[in-house]
TrEMBL record:
PANTHER family: IG-LIKE AND FIBRONECTIN TYPE-III DOMAIN-CONTAINING PROTEIN C25G4.10, TITIN. It comes from Diatraea saccharalis (sugarcane borer). Keywords: Repeat. It comes from the Eukaryota. This is Fibronectin type-III domain-containing protein. Residues 79-173 form the Fibronectin type-III domain. Pfam families: fn3. PROSITE patterns: FN3.
Length: 216
């Protein structure tokens, strides 16, 4: 059954910071919004309501209003959010984020993860990685280096705004050190029995140990 009440929520943005939330109500599926401030950016979504409650929000429309301009704007997902480092090492970072809060329930989303080092200036040094899941591991990174990271969501009708920017460091690198092997049992090993050789190695990234045995 169609909703009896359609509520339209409009939020004005100034340099993508919320200034004031406004809302307008209608029983139709279209309405004219006025007055709008020229050369201002608006963010808009729709919620349907009836006596049983409210629906999930629609996709979000973000547009810059220019007086006298008449064009169609498609709804796009809101930005991904809660970008964070799940785990890290000297040469890799595992990142995760939350999907957009506002998007169609059946909308197929994909993501582009962007990262760069602040010491590398220019847009040409930004690396972009496409993925279909809200998480990814960045590998072959430089130890003890800061990286700037952000992510965008993509839908059929367009791309979201960028997520918040994350500054993340890789761990410093430490030279590999291996202690002398320890053999257990320490007494003479009888033919056919087994022994345990313990090798403790330290370093970042984690070193790889190779054990060489000679003799007859």
């Amino acid at each position: 059954m169609a909703s009896k009440l359609l509520k339209q929520l409009i939020s004005g943005l100034n340099e993508f910071h919320f200034v004031q939330g406004m809302q307008a109500q209608t029983n139709a599926t279209a309405m004219e919004l006025q007055p709008l401030t020229a050369n201002s950016t608006y963010q808009m979504f729709v919620v349907a309501m009836n006596q049983h409650g409210a629906s999930l929000p629609s996709s979000m429309i973000i547009f810059n209003y220019t007086e006298g301009e008449d064009k169609e704007v498609n709804g796009v997902p809101s930005p991904p959010h809660s970008l964070s480092v799940a785990s890290h090492s000297a040469t890799w970072l595992t990142l995760s984020w939350q999907p957009p809060q506002f998007s169609l329930p059946d909308e197929k989303l994909s993501y582009t993860l962007y990262y760069k080092s602040p010491s590398q200036g220019g847009q040409g040094n930004v690396t972009a990685i496409k993925t279909t899941v809200p998480g990814h591991s960045l590998e072959k990174l430089t130890p003890n280096t800061q990286y700037v990271i952000w992510v965008k969501a993509h839908a059929e009708k367009g791309d979201s705004l960028p997520s918040e920017t994350l500054l993340a460091w890789t761990d410093p690198a430490y030279p590999a050190y291996v202690e002398p092997p320890t053999i257990n049992p320490v007494n003479l090993v009888v033919e056919g029995s087994s022994m345990t050789i313990l090798c403790i190695a330290m370093g970042t990234p984690t070193p790889t140990i190779s054990l060489y045995i000679s003799g007859t």
